[in-house]
């Protein structure tokens, strides 16, 4: 029995020494951003400013931190790198929607945590205000749209909901455009076409003036 106890003590001593002399790079440091320990989405609005603070938990030595905006490394000041590091996102715009900021350990970049921005903003519409087309030709009215949350889209003509005719009108919609196509336009297609985008934040309108030139036969 004494031999067995001695063998068990030897094993315990070996395990203790193994733990004490583990390479320092194998310590289980954990990163947090604004107190959160997992990747998360930050809801914000256009025009606001957001501060992201990354901190190292469970560290046994000074740890240098890196920040990335998508794949691009953020330039940090020397006093903003060790154990805790902050980045400030100023003048947030619709272009920041869906952008991820990632904090990583410099010595082991597989240790990381990310924050994705969810930027809410009302519909933003753009496109060519004026188009001239000859009778019998095809025309496309393209309404470029950005919106978060996504907007419900409609086409109006001269202040009335546009009545779509089969094989004459076609509507194509993507996440960033709302297109009205008219096949072989007629003189009666002259008028003001309105692209209307409605979201829970606001309703916006963009007008397109279409002028159809008549064909005169000799």
TrEMBL record:
Residues 23-114, 122-205 form the Ig-like domain. It comes from Propithecus coquereli (Coquerel's sifaka). SMART domains: IG, IGc2. Keywords: Cell membrane, Cytoplasm, Disulfide bond, Glycoprotein, Immunoglobulin domain, Membrane, Repeat, Signal, Transmembrane, Transmembrane helix. This is Transmembrane and immunoglobulin domain-containing protein 1. Coiled coil: none annotated. InterPro entries: Cell_adhesion_signaling, Ig-like_dom, Ig-like_dom_sf, Ig-like_fold, Ig_I-set, Ig_sub, Ig_sub2. Homodimer. One of its GO terms (molecular function) is cell adhesion molecule binding. It comes from the Eukaryota.
